[in-house]
Design brief:
By secondary structure, the chain is an alpha/beta fold. It has 2 domains: 178 residues, FAD/NAD(P)-binding domain (3-Layer(bba) Sandwich); 128 residues, FAD/NAD(P)-binding domain, CATH 3.50.50.60. The chain is globular and about 65 Å long.
């Protein structure tokens, strides 16, 4: 029986592998891709879809079509558990077992929901990206009937981009502008360079976004947000955007994980214990040095992961992955055609920052979208 390559997820770190999937097939290997949707959305453009800059087709890859056209097998489902000894993956809600000789995981991440209680409605997370499309429809519907409040919990990249793009959405749709509140913990954008924080604050406050730094959110229940010191706020729409965690599939499977629960991999992007299991993107913990949960690392992992999967199937030596430093380009899309850009000692805000981000994002997605 021919060797089987199994991919969990068709995300950023698997883009080069998917683009070259037919190479595996032509060499006599079977290729299967498991994904809970026929499409994979590019998260870097998700807030732009919320704001109306992009439509769903602009920011997604037709994974199923790509896989099947190149001779692979696509399974619409969610990988639930890995048995590294029997070399099979179990699907959620079924008894089906998917065998593999080499496994690569790009299972992504999720927004934690521990603070959510009760029957709160109007809650949307930034992942899966499809939630932002539902949020867009809900906001336009509610804001079309009068004044509402939109709350964003967090002050990381996802939170600030959502806040700015809610403003853009309502301005473009000519509905009543909501009261937009961003709950930034005790220190807005803590850990970011001072100039980035200042420029971001200026742009958001110019749009009327209220930045609240009265403490961390402890609980969200019945559309009420309770802070650590007891203050309460009410909102019609709530976006929990407090960072992401790796998929729980690895802890559930008993595989070695890092402190964040991500698949612990070595310099070859290979499980430190099971050398026919690989991974990339948000779902891994890079043993040599913890990496930020940003798309730039998944993009850099692409060619190494593709080469090592082929090498493992063919019994050849593997190549090392080098993260390439942490001084990567940061650009935030803050809505209304404006953004904040930072790289090395260069930091500025305005329309040019967004224009550069838009060009980079469109170029990236067109490179991997099927005609």
């Amino acid at each position: 029986m021919k060797k089987q390559l199994l991919l969990i997820g068709g995300g950023h770190a698997h883009m080069v592998t998917l683009a070259n999937l037919q190479t595996f097939v032509d060499k006599g290997f079977g290729v299967t891709v498991i994904q809970p949707s026929e499409y994979h959305y590019y998260s870097g453009m998700g807030p732009g879809m919320l704001g109306g800059t992009y439509q769903p087709d602009d920011i997604r890859f037709a994974t199923r079509k790509m896989v099947e056209q190149k001779g692979g097998r696509f399974i619409l489902g969610k990988a639930y558990r890995i048995d590294p000894h029997r070399q099979v993956v179990f699907l959620e809600g079924t008894e089906e077992e998917i065998p593999y000789d080499v496994l690569s995981c790009n299972a992504g991440s999720y927004v934690p929901r521990e603070s959510l209680h009760g029957e709160s409605t109007g809650i949307f997370t930034s992942k899966p990206i499809e939630e932002l499309l539902l949020a867009r429809e809900k906001i336009v519907s509610l804001a079309g009937t009068g004044k509402i409040t939109v709350a964003i919990v967090g002050s990381g990249p996802s939170a600030i981009e959502i806040a700015g793009n809610v403003h853009q959405l309502c301005a473009q749709q000519a509905v009543t502008m909501p009261k937009i509140q961003l709950f930034g913990g005790r220190n807005f954008m803590s850990g970011r360079p001072p100039k980035v924080r200042r420029l971001t604050r200026n742009l958001l406050e110019k749009k009327g976004v209220e930045i609240i730094e009265a403490g961390y959110v402890q609980q969200i229940e019945n559309n009420r947000i309770r802070l650590e010191h007891g203050q309460e706020y009410k909102a019609d729409i709530i976006f929990p955007a407090v960072g992401v965690r790796p998929s729980p599939i690895f802890a559930r499977s008993g595989l070695p994980t890092g402190p964040d629960g991500g698949l612990q991999v070595n310099e070859f992007l290979q499980s430190i214990r099971y050398h026919n299991i690989f991974g990339g993107g948000d779902c891994i913990y890079f043993q040599a040095e913890p990496l930020d949960k940003v798309g730039v690392y998944a993009v850099r992992q692409n060619p190494v992961l593709y080469g090592n999967l082929m090498a493992c199937l063919e019994g050849r030596p593997l190549a090392k992955f080098s993260p390439g430093g942490k001084d990567y380009l940061l650009i935030y899309n803050l809505g209304d055609g404006e953004g904040v850009l930072s790289k090395w000692s260069i930091t500025f805000s305005g329309r040019l920052a967004f224009t550069i981000k838009d060009w980079i994002d469109r170029r990236f997605i067109k490179a991997f979208q099927e005609p």
